[in-house]
Amino acid sequence: MLIGSHVSMKAPNFVLGSVQEALSYGANALMIYTGAPQNTRRQELDKLKIEQAQELMKEHHIPLEQMIVHAPYIINLANTVKPETYELAVEFLQKEIVRVRATGAKYVVLHPGSHVKAGENVGLDQIVKGLDTALEHNDDVYIALETMAGKGSELGYTFEQLKYIIDHCKHAKMLRVCMDTCHMHDAGYDVANFDALLDHFDEVVGLDRLVCIHLNDTKNERGAKKDRHANLGHGKLGFQTLCEIANNPRVEHVVKILETPWIDGKAPYKEEIDMLQTKTLGV
After folding, report:
1. Integer Cα distance of 179 and 198 in angstroms
2. Strands 229-230 and 217-218
3. Which pLDDT score is estimated for 283?
4. Closest by Cα among 209, 162, 211, 208 to 184
5. Per the confidence metrics, is the pTM higher than 0.90?
6. Other CB atoms closer than 10 Å to residue 220's CB: what's the count?
7. Where are the beta strands (DSSP E) in 81-158?
8. 213 near 256, Cβ under 8 Å?
9. How far is CA 88 from CA 74, 75, 121, 137, 215, in A?
């Protein structure tokens, strides 16, 4: 099972510390932000201890493809209402691609964006425009569009919307998809019937584009469009469903990342990974 979680990246060890944290959870994959997801402040690349991190990953037989980067939330490629917000999003995504390349990672997960009441079609076309610009002169870092819950004016909450973006982007070969189990459930998909969901995704988008699954339970009823994560087995999806997804042979090559809430100020990832692996082993 390719399983990991979101891990921190902070001074003094930065990416090296991220890998060390992932290993402490018994993980063989990890997801990082290259800086705080709410702002554009970033450390210089030569301070991030990238080479040491890569050596540690190699020592533990973790390929660089199993380190996923998540783009900051402030990137909104769908915004047509405030040109300065859109321009910042494109410029910062371009810089993120450079940083991701420097870490050695291959995939950066991106929330497609919110149309801020301009309309879904307008927002989708703006996302395409932004990706066309941001992906120019890039042939080695893939953007993985995340399936969203559909809260507010979020886009990307249907497979058809993701297909539209991919089909209209000049650089479609550099686009992939990251599923989020909480988001899909909250958007109205029957995540518990995962094989049927995969069939539908394959028909609309193509399973070959799926590179990451955010494995999260949800506090909401199906179709609520609220996006509130829950710990494994403590939400509406339940542990059995999530364990079956983690072990589904059709996605065994896909990295699974936990983004579940901390409990009493502590990360639950070691225990949740243990739960999934123990179930896998039939213990």
Report:
1. 10
2. antiparallel
3. 47
4. 162
5. yes
6. 19
7. 107-110, 142-146
8. yes
9. 9, 8, 21, 19, 30
- pLDDT surpassing 50 at residue 94: yes
Written as one letter, the residue type at 17 is G
Q: What is the pLDDT of residue 187?
A: 98
Q: Can you give the pLDDT at residue 63?
A: 98
Residue type for position 98: V
pLDDT in tens, 203-224: 999 999 999 999 999 999 999 9
How far, in Å, are 19, 58, 85, 250, 283 from residue 54 at the CA level?
A: 9, 6, 34, 28, 33
> For 241-277, what is each residue's pLDDT tens digit?
999 999 999 999 999 999 999 999 999 999 999 999 9
DSSP category for residue 65: G
Whether the upstream peptide bond of residue 63 has omega within 30° of 0, thus cis, is no
d(CA 250, CA 255) in angstroms, rounded, equals 12
Cβ 162 vs Cβ 200: under 8 Å? no
Residue 195: which residues within 8 A CB-CB, separation 6 or more?
A: 248, 250
Beta strands in 49-156 (DSSP E): 67-70, 107-110, 142-146
Tokens of 265: 């100020």
Long-range contacts of 266-270 (CB under 8 A, 24+ apart): 267/5, 267/25, 268/231, 269/4, 269/5, 269/25, 269/27, 270/24, 270/25, 270/26
Helix (H) or strand (E) holding 258: strand 255-258
The sign of the dihedral angle between the CA atoms of 239, 242, 248, 254 is negative
The CB-side HSE value for 250 (13 A sphere, CA atoms) comes to 15
Residue whose token pair is 């072990």: 247
